[in-house]
Amino acid sequence: MARRRRRQAEEGAQGSELVRRYSTEVAYRSKRRRKERRKLLKRFLRAGLLMMFVTFIVIPSMIAGGFLFGPRGVEGLVAAPLLLFLSYAGILYWTFKRRPELPVALSALPKASEIAQLPAQTDDWLDQQRTFLPYAAQTKLDSIGQRLDELALQVQKLDPNQPVALDLRRLLGEELPELVNAYRKVPAGLQTKPLHDGPSPERRLIEGLATIDEQIGHMHERLAAEDLHALATHQRYLDLKYKRDDELK
Amino acid sequence: MADEPKLVLNPPEPVPVVSAEKAVGLVPLDDGQKTELTARVDKFISELVSLRPGSPEFGKRAELLMRMGQREIAEAAGQSNRFLDRPVRAIAKESSVGADLTELRRTVEALDPGRHSLSTPKKLLGIVPFGNKVKDYFESYTSAQSHIAAILQKLAVGKDELLKDNAAVDVERQALWAAMKRLEQMIHVSKALDAGLEQKALELESLEPEKAKALRETALFYARQRSTDLLTQMAVTVQGYLALDLVKKNNVELIKGVDRASTTTVSALRTAVTVAQAMTNQKLVLGQITALNTTTSNIIESTAELLKTQTAAIHQQAASSTVPVETLKKAFENIYQTMDAIDNFKSQALVSMKTTVDALSNEVEKSRGYIARAEGAAQLTSGEAADPFRLTD
């Protein structure tokens, strides 16, 4: 009786754990969807603004040109819409064109702006890779995405020459893309097949993503270390300065 | 005034090179931890022995030993730059307080009654009928006071810097202590592995000589190598830990010196106020400086207390003394004595610090070789199997 009750309680606990995990996952997924929508909206907005800008430049300058150098007749009438149409096409192409193979083109010497944008760019790039990666890897990708969000805030003022910045660059800019690209090169039929009795490429991808996920977590801690130290030091300083012999009294 | 205790600043002894054997056991592990770690080692050995030597699985398990404690070493080594940096900076830093002290000395020397031909006031007035030399002398205090007050303020800021430095040292030492604890755990693991594998190899010698050989040549070999690496890193970390203590002690002594220099200066100026009153009936207003005992934030409590009691004594002495200038001279001597004590301390402490830094950088350099090897080994092994000796916080 007691055993059954205990088992029921255990099952209940497991169930609620599952529910909890599931609900956080659902929350994260919906958050991600919202983020994607926001990103798309931003892109549309940018394209729209650019198009408006071009329109306001091209049409008045055509009219001004007509006044200054005399009307152009039919040629002008054709050239104006053609120019507009071409610039619209250009803007749309640059806004929605497919992203490059790597999240960022890394320069030989790291720049501050590059590091500041690295997490967000990697996140974008990883989102585009999702469709090519197995379903089993999605939770890991979610986790990496979440960590990248946190990291994005931390790297804003990071000195690009610090070792941690270089490590971050290597991890996000080289090692992660290399892993994903290497997996994508494996023919679809072989992705789930164990290699030499070892793990399958899919398994290896997931393990690799797990390692990277963990490493990003370490970076997060390393980046916070300085601030944590600064706070601890200042509190200790206040102690040393104003609380001299309280412990002895 | 005269019976004020002589200031003695003790430069701490330099930190010697810590041998690996001595470094172990500094951070004690509790029995619970030891049993848990030993149990993990036993499990690992029995798993390893159950595998066929020469199989990739056996190789993989044995290679785990190659990167055993890698994170702990990297973590502790990461701090080595910081603890090496701090004593070096400390040597440079003293100069900022040092410059202020030198300036204070220069300013104070200009006011020294010994340098002005002040004998007893009556006689002087009798010889020199024109002008009033004593009056002029005391007037120079008024013009010097804002300069002295500024220096004292700067010294107070310098003192705060030293305190901040010590706070940072405390925090760093705490982090180092934690790192040392983890290293100690890994050393315990590596020693247990060494003993366990050795024994296992002996047991298997007659039954399965192949396996015994494989155990000795791979697992035991790696475990011993890592033992050395861990011990080397531990020794360096302990040395850094002690060096940081040296920085802290130095700063504490220097703070004492700065405090005393400020007190003796203020005290001398107060004496001047009283002596001026006694000798020339001149009211010397040194408000900027004599108010210092009320702002206790600048001066530690005990110093403020000392000042308060001294003020009464000076008053009495100067009033009762037939030669009030002597009291003033003594007050200046106190300042000089303090400054000399600080200078003496600084030159001795500098030697101590240099010896420590040299010894430490040597050891850090040596340990870097080991770390490079450890990192190379880590790159050889891929991160497939989970590290069985991974420490949890």
Describe the model.
The complex is a heterodimer of chains A (249) and B (393). Chain A is mainly α. In chain A, 77% of the residues lie in helices and 0% in strands. Chain A has helices at 2-69, 73-96, 112-129, 138-154, 163-185, 201-242. Chain B is mainly alpha-helical. Helices cover 78% and strands 0% of the residues of chain B. Chain B contains eleven helices and no strands. Classes of the chains: A mainly alpha (249), B mainly alpha (393). Chain A binds chain B through residues 199, 207, 211, 229, 232-237, 239-241, 244, and chain B through 160, 163-164, 166-168, 170-172, 174-175, 300-301, 383-384.
> What distance lies between the first and last C-alpha atoms of chain A, to the nearest angstrom?
59 Å
- The helix content of chain A is over 70%
Biggest interface: chains and residue counts? A-B, 14 and 15 residues
N- to C-terminal separation of chain B? 57 Å
How many β-strands of chain A, per DSSP? 0
Taking pLDDT < 50 over at least 5 consecutive residues as the criterion, the unreliable ranges of chain B are 294-300, 380-385
Query: H/E order of the elements of chain A?
Result: HHHHHH
pLDDT average of chain A, as an integer?
A: 78
The chain-level mean pLDDT of chain B equals: 75
Helix fraction of chain B, binned, reads over 70%
Q: Outline of this structure?
A:
The complex is a heterodimer of chains A (249) and B (393). Chain A is 77% helix and 0% strand. With 249 residues, chain A is mostly helical.
Write the layout of secondary structure elements.
The complex is a heterodimer of chains A (249) and B (393).
Chain A: H1 2-69, H2 73-96, H3 112-129, H4 138-154, H5 163-185, H6 201-242
Chain B: H1 20-23, H2 31-50, H3 56-64, H4 70-78, H5 80-111, H6 121-127, H7 133-204, H8 209-280, H9 287-290, H10 301-320, H11 324-380
Helix pairs in contact in B: 2-7, 3-8, 4-7, 4-11, 5-7, 5-8, 5-11, 7-8, 8-10, 8-11, 10-11
